[in-house]
TrEMBL record:
One of its GO terms (cellular component) is plasma membrane. It is a multi-pass membrane protein. It comes from Methanolobus tindarius DSM 2278. The chain crosses the membrane at residues 34-53, 73-95, 115-136, 192-209, 230-250, 262-287, 364-386, 392-416. GO terms for molecular function: symporter activity. This is Na+/H+ dicarboxylate symporter. Its main location: membrane.
Amino acid sequence: MSGRYNLPDPLTLIHPRSLKNLNYHLQELVKGRLWLKILIGMMLGIVTGLVLGPSTGTLSQEMSYTIGEWLALPGYLFLAMLQMIVVPLVFASIIRGIAAGEDMEQLKKIGLRTVAYFLVTTALAILIGLTLALTINPGTYISSELVQGTMTSNATQTDTSEFGSFDVAELPGMITTIVPTNPLGSLATGQMLQVVIFSIIIGVALVSMQPVQSKPLLELLGSLQEVSMTVVRWSMLLAPIAVFGLISKFTLNLGIDALMGMLVYVGTVLLGLLLMLIVYMLVIIVVTRRNPLKFLRSIRDVLLLAFSTSSSAAVMPLSIKTAEENIGVRPSISQFVIPLGATINMNGTALYQSIAAVFLAQAFGIELGFGQLLLIMVTVVGASIGTPSTPGVGIVILAMILNSVGIPTSGIALIIGVDRILDMSRTAVNVTGDLVTCVIMDKWVTGKKTANEEFIEVANQEAQRRVHDEDVIVISPGE
């Protein structure tokens, strides 16, 4: 059989109607599903970063860095838009959230119970981190040559020495700084903890005033809040492209090799974060009797965005929207708890910092006694309260914690290479903690809904019905 077979072009075997139906089904699949669009952007970003990374030999190190910066440009713009709107949104949301209660006793209940809950869960997160680190001993898996290399790194020592050591005598001054002496300056520079404190003071003052006197300012803040949420909705259209660019740059710069020598440490932190997530789900089951899987499904958009941006502050607007529309939390709760939680409720960060401190002590051969472990716990709790909710800030706060117990800050060079992936993971846990707190406080703090809240609840129910309708994929019959 010497004759040739005349094989048809494979593309001619695909009927145009099949391509049309496939395109239709794909559009229906992603329609209204921000989480799926973000997930696709993440996966494409990982593939792009691995293909264009210098480890493949396709591009030089310099060219990979340049391409990574350009790919990340939509992500930078996305983060800038969100950070631009965070301060006015937080300012308006906290004040309106407090004023919506219209009851000083209810406000006192919300505030005291929320702060107490935050402190308890932060302490629990630190205990989980210390227990895992002392049980697994991740610092013993690091080679002595690598540790000695960090000891001789003057650059790293110089970069971290500016943070100084923790001194108990400085604590009163640190507490004093949380009250803004120049509120406009705090708003302009984005000092979130001071903005939150100022907003709480203004909100409490409005509750104590007559409705006729407080109504004009509340209406103005309501308009400001609505404008902020409109900008947030616009920015969400850019989210999948932003995630693609940020993940591409991250994968380009880090690569796979940087993770290999730190797998035990990374695994310990991720296991701790997973245990903290399980604790949250147990709280959801016990306190609210909700299905934890349905709860996670309702907040998946926020979690994926928090993982991608590594910033609790950046996803704060979406967190408030999700709390009210997807999980049915009263605005008076969500608009108070989430901005406050994004500032002082950093359970994932606290867990990470406790593990990192023990890991580096083990790597340097430093024995930590009970007093030092207790000091780590107290310092981490204090640091987590004022930690800015922006990418990478946890590694800066870690320097202060290490100094407080006499661990060389040069050891940060050991973990800086893998901090980005851990930063992304702990941010998702931080945001989950804030949303769980919203549900808990909504259950614990009962109160009569205001007319405004009743209107919002009806609108949220309608929005949930629309989301449910969009989640149903309608398959049209083939032609």
